[in-house]
Amino acid sequence: MAVHPDRHFVTADWLSRHIGDPDVAVVDGSWHMPATGRSGRAEYLAGHIPGAVFFDLDAIADTTSPLPHMLPTPDAFAAAVGALGIRDGATIVVYDSVGLFSAPRVWWSFRIMGAHDVVLLDGGLPAWIAAGLPLEAGEPAPAPATFAARFDPTPVRNFDEVKAALGGPAQIVDARSPGRFSGREPEPRAGLRSGHMPGAINLPYGELIDDGRLKSAADLRALFAARDIDPLRPVIASCGSGVSAAVIALALDVIGASDVAIYDGSWTEWGGRSDSSVEGSSVGGG
Q1: What's this model's pTM, rounded to 2 decimal places?
Q2: What is the pLDDT of residue 281?
Q3: Are 218 and 107 part of one and the same domain?
């Protein structure tokens, strides 16, 4: 593993000095909501950090599930990232094309699958470009490697577990926009009710980010405190489909919270089921 000064982030300068190290793996984890019309893979092929491989959230997933980008089995994850040339013991540096959006989901996935040294590129691809550092195009052909997944299920929640947690000590923190949370706006995916889980707390993920970077630990603590979210109590993070919930999980990890899980199915599952309780006006998805 390469030595870096921070447990969560490395700078573009640090990465530029270590990009050729044999124990550093660079991963482009860009993903965009379907309504944006953007393709993470297409943008990666057009230009990415030299040597980076593309982590496709929709492909390295449980493709048997009707829900989007659910976690794959540990064996499937290990096979997929091994094919990308990512081996046990590597320092894995993850970034995305907007600064900080989908990369935390990839960071979280690697961590719960047993990777010990996973960090994010501070500021993502925009910070790399702003530093005047080079890009390369096309698809690399990495040599296959061996990654042995050691899955930790404790930071993952399913529908039944979240349903059982309602009204208990766990705090449900929803990263969606206020309009979707309150039910004033329809969900971007068709067929979903709008609103939120009973007792959930709304903290839109964008409030944790400033110019493509996670806010300071002091600012994060203030934001959680303003929502009466106690990092010393259990937290279950949710969002639309389990991507931006990872920004909540990352921010809580940065400030030292130790009992944080993500509801993998998130609102795509909850809002699409008839046996789930929903608060807020119910607007048809579209």
Answers
A1: 0.96
A2: 59
A3: no
- Split at pLDDT 50, 70, 90, the class of 4 is confident
One-letter amino acid for residue 205 of the chain: Y
**Residue 112 and residue 156 in contact, taking contact as beta carbons nearer than 8 Å:** yes
What is the 8-class DSSP label of residue 95?
A: E
Is 142 inside a domain boundary?
no
Number of Cβ atoms within 10 Å of the Cβ of 7: 10
Radius of gyration of the chain (CA): 18
How far, in Å, CA of 166 to CA of 7, rounded? 32
Are the CB atoms for 195 and 282 separated by under 8 Å?
yes
49 shares its domain with 162: no
pLDDT digits (tens, 9 = 90+) for 198-214: 999 999 999 999 999 99
- Residues 76, 162 within the same domain: no
> To which residue do tokens 């409030």 refer?
207
Q: What does the alpha-carbon distance between residue 266 and residue 240 come to, in Å, rounded to a whole number?
A: 6
Rounded to an integer, what distance in angstroms lies between the CA atom of residue 118 and that of residue 111? 7
The pLDDT tens digits of the residues spanning 66-97 come to 999 999 999 999 999 999 999 999 999 999 99
| Rounded Cα distance, 185 and 195, in Å | 9
Reduced to 3 states (helix: H, G, I; strand: E, B; else coil), residue 106 is helix
Total domains in the fold of the chain: 2
Contact 274, 192 (CB under 8 A): no
Instruction: Give the tokens for residue 246.
Output: 């990872």
Q: Which of 81, 118, 235, 239 is catalytic?
A: 239
265 located within any domain: yes
Q: Which amino acid is at 157?
A: R
Range of the domain at 193: 156-270
DSSP state of 205: G
CA 49, CA 35: separation in Å to the nearest integer? 26
Q: Is 239 a catalytic residue?
A: yes
Residue 219 counted as domain residue = yes
CB-CB neighbours of 190 under 10 Å? 10
